Amino acid sequence: MAFRYEVRLSGSGGQGLILVGKVLAEAAAIYDGLNATQSQSYGPEARGGASRSEVIISDGDIDYPKAENIDIMLALTQEACDKYVVDLKEGGILLVDSQMVTNIPKGSYKVVALPIIQSAVERLGKFLVSNIIALGVITKLSGVVSEDSVKHAIRARVPKGTEEINIKAFYTGIELADNWLGKHGSLL
Amino acid sequence: MENIPNPNVRMWQGNVACAEGAIAAGCRFFAGYPITPSSEIAEVLALRFPVIGGNFIQMEDEIAAMGAIIGGSLGGAKTMTATSGPGFSLKQENIGFAVMAEVPCVIVNVQRGGPSTGLPTHAAQSDVMQARWGTHGDHPIIVLCPSSVRETYDLTIRAFNLAEKYRMPVILLSDEIIGHLTEKIEIPEPSTIEIIDRKKPTDTPENYLPYKMDDSDIPAMANFGEGYRYHVTGLAHDETGFPTNDPKKIRAQMLRLNRKIQRFRNDIVEVETFNTDDMDVLVISFGSTARSAKRAVINAREKGVKAGLLRLKTIWPFPDKEIEALYKPVRKIVVAEMNLGQIAHEVEWATRREKPVVRVNKIDGEPITPNEIFEAIIS
After folding, report:
1. Which residue of A184, B222, B296, B322 has the fewest CB atoms within a 10 Å radius of its CB?
2. Buried b (16+ CB within 10 A) or exposed e, B90-109
3. Alpha carbon of A109 to those of A70, A94, A106, A188: distances in Å?
4. pLDDT above 90 for B318
5. Does a cis peptide bond (omega within 30 degrees of 0) precede residue B317?
6. What percent of chain B has pLDDT over 70?
7. Do A25 and B11 touch (CB under 8 A)?
8. Distance (Å) from the C-alpha of residue A50 to the closest C-alpha of chain B?
């Protein structure tokens, strides 16, 4: 039976979550030789409003391309967390920004709260790379794609001239996840 | 493991695949007016055409864009426009002109929720009947519905081929889910792609009849600028292209216009079947919803219910014969679509209401889930 891994990236329009979805899907499909789809759902606003981007990764065919039994969900805003957590599966991972999401919805999933946005601002001086830090955390926690593949996919996708800061952001995310795992033990 | 990606394997959005498919088909003229969720098609072609020698024009509105691609095609180019809901409504008058004047061109409608401005960023499949009858008068039309990114590429090429072959507008009816879905595609080698070009006249310019009645039912088409002069009009016309009020000539031309599709229907209609050999329940779907339907059929089989899927790749002309060939042994038919039953109605007609037709419909912008179709199969 083919495996199917579902990722939902949620937050507010303009946070770069569609880009993260595309990078993750490209890492899986182009560099890791798996199948992947990326889709999105957003409102008519150019910025703001709860938005989500979804990635399905599988070693078989992906018929239904939307997430409905989510393995890992990222929430960068409280609104998105409240709105989109419903499809997170039992035992799935809820990854939240610890400053933006203070009210963790109740449910039988594992919660990982990390200072994603704060790390972007304080360690890299750029709020904008929060999304790639989150990608680093997801890469580490999910283990569904290889770090190398995600690195290649980031370089191929991000605007020219921003490769280095984005790679740094990616490793900042890996480190955040490593520290969390060190403190809390394995997710399993 | 060293990561050496295959350069032909890409992660493309459906809309990107549409633009690239158009280029592969030989399209070198695009006129449009941007509208969500179709805008990426225009974006890609605006970038690509200047590099490969094509022309991109952003017109003042959708009506003008449709007019521009008719003109471009009369000049000999393969032409396309892309739009969504409200823009598709605006194009209807000129789509009728393209049908009447027999001008090959491709119109892409990436469906969103309607009516009116409706749901700009959310999917629907509710333009099925508008694609068929949006423009007035008895007219033939060809409408293709892709279910994946790769199929968007393939059916865009096919839309151009059918337009050129039958000298008429062809509609590619995508939807927001497929248009905005990014998925893996292996781009085929150009040498493996079949490309069809319009039939050119063999008569001299003096003897050329642009709407000639002959056995083929498809008159040869001269490009403007190549020495052939003829009259193009939306009015009923005779073989010369000039307007006529002669009932005999009008009847002959109108019957030929519609016969083009009736006669070559088997060449145009494409469907795909999945698990239909021993089925008790026939599921019919198309576009993005067909993906949910396929999952539902697989899940039903796992529960011991013999379900099968008929996926419509061509929706107009309607695949009635293909449905007829399948429905007799089944106990019921499930039709899943993101509208209130536009295809279900056609299915009831094609099956003479001999079987219960269960409708799975959704019109709130959200996709129909596999489970919603599964419930209809097993209920």
Report:
1. A184
2. bbbebbbbbbbbbbbbbbbb
3. 11, 7, 9, 11
4. yes
5. yes
6. 99
7. yes
8. 13
The pair of three-digit structure tokens given for residue A174, joined into one six-digit string: 């890996």
CATH number of the domain at A4-184, please?
3.40.920.10
- State the sign of the Cα–Cα–Cα–Cα dihedral B340, B345, B347, B348: positive
Considering the four listed CATH numbers 3.40.190.170, 1.10.230.10, 3.40.50.300, 3.40.50.970, the one that applies to the domain covering B9-192 is 3.40.50.970
Reported confidence tier of residue B3, pLDDT bands at 50, 70, 90: low
Residue of A nearest to B371 (CA): A68
Which CATH number does B272-378 carry? 3.40.50.920
| A68 at B interface, C-beta within 8 A | yes
**A38 touching B (Cβ < 8 Å):** yes
Single out the residue of A108, A171, A103 nearest to residue A134, CA to CA: A171
Buried b (16+ CB within 10 A) or exposed e, B323-350: beebbeebebbbbbbbbebbbbebbbeb
Residue B305 Ramachandran class (φ > 0 left, ψ -120 to 50 alpha, else beta): beta
CA distance B25 to B159: 9
Integer Cα distance of B101 and B204 in angstroms: 21
φ, ψ for residue B166, nearest 5 deg:
-105, 5
Question: Could you read off the pLDDT of A149-185 as tens digits, one per residue?
Answer: 999 999 999 999 999 999 999 999 999 999 999 998 7
Measured between beta carbons, the chain B residues lying within 8 angstroms of A43 are 121
In B, minimum Cα distance to A19 occurs at B182
Per the CB < 8 Å rule, is A39 touching B181?
A: yes
Q: Please determine, for residue B54, whether its predicted confidence score (pLDDT) is greater than 80.
A: yes
